[in-house]
Specification:
By secondary structure, this protein is α/β, with parallel strands linked by helices. Helices cover 38% and strands 19% of the residues. A hairpin with a 2-residue loop joins strand 6 (180-185) and strand 7. Helix 12 crosses helix 13. The chain is globular, with a radius of gyration of 20 Å.
């Protein structure tokens, strides 16, 4: 199983005071913790970050990562250059602090010869809870300052597509900035200001039980959209467009625990106590039937194996996202055994 173009996903905090209605991690926020980097953790992350096989290092959280900015900047400084980082955030800081964050982040990645994309949550659930709206402010900051090594994009959910478009356009209009949005596909838009382009990505809604409408993209429509975008069948892992191989998709939790993203019933190790390398992770994937199956077999084909079980299909319908489906069905050994059977 050849894997390349890996995604390293670092959850640096469980702390969040925003309180979005649909949050998948709300149970972790009350007693949440921040990631702290031991010397061993830094050594492991340095190895993982600087591998030529890594396409992106995404920093977010099971909470709001702005609550652990110091560790984010520590992580950036582990790079030996030429790396692509991403910071996924609600951007809830007061504007002055947010501007200082942008300046410091740009200085670090510029000095290292890296890039970093700031990805602002732009769905209704986040925006209604945030006092200091960061979107129009950030766009205006980019237009005026053109930070050399930072880019800016937005993320939302499929049922909020109309809301997100209107919100961003109205915010810019209030600043007398002309803009337009062009649809790029089911899961993508582009916000255009003069000759500058800012991406908008849409995800399907995880566990949409709180949503009154049924107009959200279900798991089958979501996978169809991904397959159309990538030109190949969807499997778990770091998705790369055809004809490129997919990569490993690794998540590190605030505790330092390491998992394959979405397959969190299997523990690999901990960056604070163990030695973690991509070679180690590749062998783990090759030797673990569930991971190997999820990384090599089309996901819809795996669902097909358990479609005769009403309870399994109910779990899939309720989770409504392939990575969250695995978390749910992993609690049922009989479903897993049927999925990985030849």
């Amino acid at each position: 199983m050849k894997l390349t173009g890996h995604l390293l996903y670092l959850d640096i905090t469980q702390i969040c005071g925003i309180g979005c209605a649909f949050c998948m991690y709300a149970d972790k926020h009350k007693n949440g913790k921040n990631m702290e980097l031991t010397d061993n953790a830094k050594n492991n992350l340095r190895v993982l970050i600087n591998s030529p096989d890594v396409k992106r290092i995404s920093i977010s959280g099971e909470g709001e990562p702005l609550n652990n900015v110091s560790v984010f900047h520590e992580i950036l400084k582990l790079s030996e250059g030429g790396k692509s980082f991403e910071f996924i955030t609600s951007g809830f800081f007061p504007h002055k602090l947010l501007e200082e964050f942008y300046i410091k982040t740009n200085d670090i990645v510029k000095n290292n010869g890296d890039t970093c994309n700031i990805r602002l949550s732009s769905d209704y659930y986040h925006i209604e809870k945030i006092v200091h709206k960061p979107h129009a402010f950030s766009l205006e900051y980019w237009l005026k300052n053109n930070p050399s090594n930072l880019t800016l994009s937005f993320r939302s959910i499929d049922i909020d597509r109309g809301f997100t478009r209107g919100y961003l356009l109205d915010g810019l209009k209030n600043l007398s900035i002309k803009s337009e949005i062009k649809e790029q596909g089911i899961l993508e838009d582009q916000l255009i200001i003069d000759n500058k382009y800012f991406g908008i990505d849409y995800k399907n809604l995880v566990k949409p039980t709180h949503v009154a409408t049924s107009e959200y993209l279900n798991i089958y429509g979501y996978i169809d959209a991904i397959e159309e975008k990538t030109g190949k069948k969807f499997t778990l892992g770091s998705i790369n467009k055809y004809p490129l191989n997919n990569g490993m998709d690794i998540t590190v939790k605030p505790s330092g625990d390491v998992h394959f993203y979405g397959i969190e019933n299997i523990e690999i190790g901990n960056i604070n106590h163990d030695i973690i390398s991509w070679k180690h992770l590749q062998k783990f994937a090759d030797d673990t039937p569930l991971i190997k199956t999820l990384y090599t077999m089309p996901f819809l084909d795996l669902i097909e194996k358990i479609k005769d079980n009403d309870f399994a299909m109910k779990l899939i319908e309720q989770a409504n996202n392939p990575y969250w489906v695995v978390k749910e069905i992993a609690q049922h050994d009989d479903f897993i055994e049927r999925m990985i059977a030849s």
